[in-house]
């Protein structure tokens, strides 16, 4: 939450569109993991900000972070436990 509230982190949800529609972190950008490398340009304008990657349980976001780092993004973080942990902690959710 600190990254989001104090550093204006950009949230990228790497879930598939149907998973994203069932619930996601407010204001998250949905770019499925399989499309991330091809859509990196969409995130270029946010390169100076922290980017927080999210998926359901935390597995795909780690792979997504590696892709972004390979493309020169330095402030890349993953959400520990993924969206499931976010929801379990009663944090805000959009559907």
List descriptors.
single chain, 95 residues, alpha/beta, four-stranded parallel β-sheet, 37% helix
Question: What would you note in describing this structure?
Answer:
The protein is an alpha/beta fold and about 100 residues long. The protein is about 35% helix and about 15% strand. The chain has helices at about 1-5, 15-20, 35, 60-70, 80-90; strands at about 10-15, 30, 50-55, 75-80. Strands 2-1-3-4 form a four-stranded parallel beta sheet, with helices on one face. Helix 4 links the parallel strand 3 (about 50-55) and strand 4. The longest helix has 12 residues, at about 60-70. It is globular, with a radius of gyration of 12 Å.
Describe this structure in a few short sentences.
The chain is of the alpha/beta class.
Give the low-confidence spans. Answer: none
Specify the structural class: alpha/beta
Q: Provide the β-strand percentage band.
A: 5-15%
Distance between the termini: 19 Å
* Backbone shape: globular
Question: What radius of gyration results from the CA coordinates?
Answer: 12 Å
The total count of strands amounts to 4
